Amino acid sequence: MTTSTLTRSPRARVPLDPPTGWFARWIDRLIARRFGGPADPLRAMWHNPRVLRADLALEAGVSRLRTLPPHLGTLAQMTAAVQIECGWCLDFGYFLAHAQGVEPAKLEQVPTWRTSDAFTPLERRVMEFAEAATATPPAVTDGMAAALRADLGDDGLVELTMLVAVENLRSRFNSTLGLSSQGFSESCRVPGA
Fold first, then answer.
1. How far apart are CA 149 and CA 166, in angstroms?
2. CA-CA distance, 28 to 8, in Å (whole number)?
């Protein structure tokens, strides 16, 4: 899947210029080939190569998690991004979820999941948990955790918690640095729909 015209975050709090070091340039080209253009969060991280490497290591590890059905992790992460109001994460998350085959109707209704009839009871419990885990302070109840343990097992609950926590890290980093939607999700839309 490629994107046609990506934009830059106009209110970024750090420069998003192309990287200069060999490692950063290599990552920039790799991301551009895979996703259709550079990713503003990585361009922001170029300013501190240790942060960039730590983030790449974390994301590589998270990408290998396999306990949960992928669509549940996606819905949880999108719910956390909605709570934090991270436009970049919602845009890129929609793009990735669409590429993984998650139903577009569900993705579009994540912000209104409580009133939408598009979600199963399990998906609703996952999204409620993601919202509660994203709150400051976290508002997860024993009942929420027990229900999800019954649905997903201990390993599934732990993975879900990690996915929500990592999305909180992403969303807070991007929002704090003023990174906004680049238009990744526009490549998923049917023209004229």
1. 20
2. 14
Q: What are the sequence ranges of the domains in the chain?
A: 22-64, 70-176
130-176: pLDDT as tens digits: 999 999 999 999 999 999 999 999 999 999 999 999 999 999 999 99
**Cα–Cα distance measured from residue 53 to residue 1, given in angstroms and rounded to the nearest whole number:** 26
Buried b (16+ CB within 10 A) or exposed e, 156-193: bbebbbbbbebbbebbebbbebebbbbbbbbbbeeeee
Residue 72: band (very low, low, confident or very high) from pLDDT cuts 50, 70, 90: very high
CATH of region 70-176, choose from 1.20.1250.20, 1.20.1290.10, 1.20.1560.10, 3.40.50.720: 1.20.1290.10
Report if pTM > 0.90: yes
